[in-house]
């Protein structure tokens, strides 16, 4: 059986979550979606009526919030102060505000510490995010950086949401570009591949093919 950590980083809309869950299931590993933690922190900020651009107030609010995520590969449990927010974290309101919240260094320090604790408690784990290979788990067994062409990412996201009009797909592409730009240019833990990451471009691969590829890499890395 696989023992260790697989990190899965990359921009939005590359299929990281589906691929990550698929890899975790195949390896018999736990699964940690760190984006869900930043999204849950954003719910806490919005519920407190705080401006996501006010870094000090954001840091204070998130420090006082109890953010819990499950690591069972088959389910998604996300709670803020005991309230189930698994559906709300996917709302457009949260998606708009999450990059600003996750750029606050104190928020990152708090959630990274929590992520390391969760990973430390697991024998085998797949961890998905933006800075997992570079910052959170620099000694991971296998680091994967998943990319895809921007048009492909917008098309896939549109498919998931059931959107078909060109204008709607353009909006999605613009939102993906905005978040990538924000995540890649922030000072603290910007999105970039770790020096020792394997870059996998999923533009022309099926989800199953990407999962197969990463499972093979993980087994070879043992
Ligand atoms: O992966 P997901 O799209 O759910 O992540 C939402 C946002 O959370 C990202 O756009 C990014 O701003 C932030 N994030 C981060 N570091 C991580 C995971 C997510 O900054 N490790």
Report on the structure:
This protein has 222 residues and is α/β, with parallel strands linked by helices. It has a single domain, classed as 3-Layer(aba) Sandwich (Rossmann fold). Helices cover 51% and strands 15% of the residues. The protein has 9 helices and 8 strands. A 5-stranded parallel β-sheet has the order 2-6-1-7-8, with helices on both faces. Helix 3 runs parallel beside helix 5. The longest helix is centred in the last third of the chain and has 20 residues. The protein is globular, with a radius of gyration of 17 Å. The mean pLDDT is 95. The protein binds cytidine-5'-monophosphate. The site of cytidine-5'-monophosphate has 14 residues, from helix 2, helix 4 and helix 8. Cytidine-5'-monophosphate binds next to helix 2, helix 4 and helix 8.
């Amino acid at each position: 059986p696989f023992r260790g950590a697989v990190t899965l980083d990359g921009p939005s809309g590359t299929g990281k979550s589906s691929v990550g869950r698929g890899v975790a299931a195949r390896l018999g590993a736990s699964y940690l979606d760190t984006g869900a933690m930043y999204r849950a922190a954003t719910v806490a900020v919005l519920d407190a009526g705080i401006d996501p651009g006010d870094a000090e107030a954001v840091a204070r609010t998130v420090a006082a919030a109890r953010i819990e995520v499950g690591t069972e590969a088959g389910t998604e449990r996300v709670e803020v102060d005991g309230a189930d927010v698994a559906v709300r974290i996917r709302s457009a309101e949260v998606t708009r505000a999450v990059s600003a919240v996750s750029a606050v260094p104190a928020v990152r320090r708090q959630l990274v510490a929590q992520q390391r604790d969760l990973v430390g408690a697991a024998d085998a784990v797949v961890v998905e995010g933006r800075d997992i290979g570079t910052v959170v788990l620099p000694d991971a067994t296998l680091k994967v950086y998943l990319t895809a062409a921007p048009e492909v990412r917008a098309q896939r996201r549109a498919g998931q949401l059931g959107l078909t009009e060109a204008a709607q797909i353009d909006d999605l592409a613009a939102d993906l570009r905005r978040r990538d730009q924000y995540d890649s240019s922030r000072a603290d833990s910007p999105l970039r591949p770790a020096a020792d990451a394997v870059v996998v471009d999923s533009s022309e691969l099926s989800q199953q093919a990407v999962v197969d590829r990463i499972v093979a890499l993980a087994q070879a890395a043992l």
